[in-house]
Specification:
526 residues; alpha+beta; DNA ligase i, domain 1; D-amino Acid Aminotransferase, Chain A, domain 1; OB fold (Dihydrolipoamide Acetyltransferase, E2P); 3 domains; seven-stranded mixed beta sheet; seven-stranded antiparallel beta sheet; 19 helices; 22 strands; 24% strand; globular
Length: 526
Amino acid sequence: MNAFIDLFQALDETTKTNDKLRALVHFFALADDADKVWAVALLSGKRPKKIVRSADLRMWCAEVADVPLWLLEESYHIVGDLAETLARLSPPPKQVAPSSLSGWMAQIIALQDQPTEARKAFILDAWSGLDEFGRFVFNKILMGGFRIGVSQRLMTRALSQYAEVDISLMAHRLMGKWDPVHTTWESLIKPNDDMADLSRPYPFCLAYPLETSPEELGDFQQFRVEWKWDGIRAQLIRRNEEVFIWSRGEELSTDQFPEIEAAAHELGLKGVWDGEILVFRDGEVQSFGDLQKRLGRKKVGPKIMQSYPVVFRAYDLMEYDGEDLRSQPLRSRLARLSHSLPTEGLIHISQPPEIGTWEEAKALRETSRAHRAEGFMIKPLDAPYEGGRKRGIWWKWKVDPLTIDAVMIYAMRGHGRRANLYTDYTFAVRDGDGLVPVCKAYSGLTDEEIREVDRFVKANTQERFGPVRSVNPELVFEIAFEGIRLSSRHKSGVAMRFPRIARWRKDKPVEEIDTLNDVKGLIYDG
C-alpha cells in the first residue's frame, strides 16, 4: 500500500507528462505483481463497486474526530474535496497498517455483501493505521474519482515502456474485458497476444479540431469528408459468432442494443467496425436526446426499442475475417467496408454527402443541425487507422455552437485549488416579468475573471444555501452550447448540451438578455 501511496503522491504533485511516466515505471519496478495489477485498474477506471455512502463516511468521521457534523460540512465546502476533508479531520494513526494494496482491495470487495456495521469497523480501523495522506488515498479508493492526470494513453505508454511491449498491442489489451481480481500481471504485460479475449476492441482513432481553413489541408479529392453524427461512437465486433458493442468510453454496451446484436448475427459478420449508434425513425436520424432514453438501462424492453429504434452506421473497417486492416490506407479500408455491409438496415454504411469542393462543403456544413449532425469529419484517404489523438489523421470540423445571452443568478464554490472561489454558475433568461434558470456552466472564464466574479458574488449575495449563493442578477454572459431540446425535467422546459461561458458581456445590460421564447426558438424540430 505504501508504494501505491507514494505513486499517488508523485502523480498528484506534477503536471508534467514525463514525470508521471517515470513515476509509473518506477512503481512497476518496485511493487508486488498483484499491487501493480490493481494500480493499473484503479488509475484507469476499473474500480470495484462502492461499499459505503459518502453520507456514512461524513458521519463516521465526525464521530471519531469528535466534531459536529455541520462543522465537517463547512470544512468540506472550504477544502473542496471530501476525501481530503475526511483525511485531515481524522485523528492521527494509532498503529501501522501493514496490508498491501491488493490486500486492501480484497477486503473492500469482501465487504460488499456485509452489513453497515462491518463496513464501518473496517474503515475506522483503516483510518487508524494510515497517516493523513494515506487516509486521503484510501478515501479516494473508497469513493472513486481519481483526478491526477493519468489518462488511458499515459498508462499504456508506461506499461509499454516497462514491459517493452508494442504500445498499440498494450493499448488493445487494456481495452479488453479484464478485471484485477482474475488477471495476473504476467498476462497483462506478456509480449504476445493470442486474442483469447474475443470481445477486445481496438483503441479508437480520435480527431483534432480543425483550426484553419479546410483549403489549407490540400486537394479536396485526397480527403474523405463525411457527416460527424451526433450519436454514440462505438465499435461493433463479431468474432467466432460472438457479438460485442463497445462505446468509446470503453463500456461494453451490447445489452443496451439487442437489435443491433441480433442484426450482426443475421448478417453473419466477421470483423470489427467503427461507427455511430443513432436513433433512426421514419428514415431520419433523431436527436441525441432521444438516444439518451436508451442509455443507463440494465434492460431495454420492447417498448423502449419501439419508441427509440437504433441503427449502427459504420464509417470504418478495422478488422475483417481475422485480418487487422488498421495499417492500410483509408481508401483501402473503405473499399473493404463497402463490400462488408449493406447500405441500409439496422447495420449499414455511412454515406458521405455528395460534394466535390471545399466551397460546397462549407455551404453544406451550415445545414448540419438539420441533418442531426455536429458538422463534418475530414480524413486523409492515405492515412492508416491509429489509436488515440494524432495530428494529421482525422479532423473534426464542427458547426459553430448556438449562443444566448443570460444573467448569472446563483454561484457555488469550486473544488480543489478553487475551493475558496465561486466558480460554478447558474444562468437565467427573461420569462415575462421574471427570470427562469436555463443552464449551469463553470468553464470559459480566465483566472482573473473568476476572481472578479468571486468578488461580485461575495458583495452581492441575496441568500445562502450551503455552498450556493443567490446573487443580484446583474452580470450578463454569452453562453455557448452544442444543442438544445425540450425537457420536462427542467423548470425552463429546455435542456442544453455542453453549456459553457463564451464571454463576459460587460457591454450588455440585464434588460437586453434573451427571453425563454428566444431560447426555445433555437430548438430544431424538423
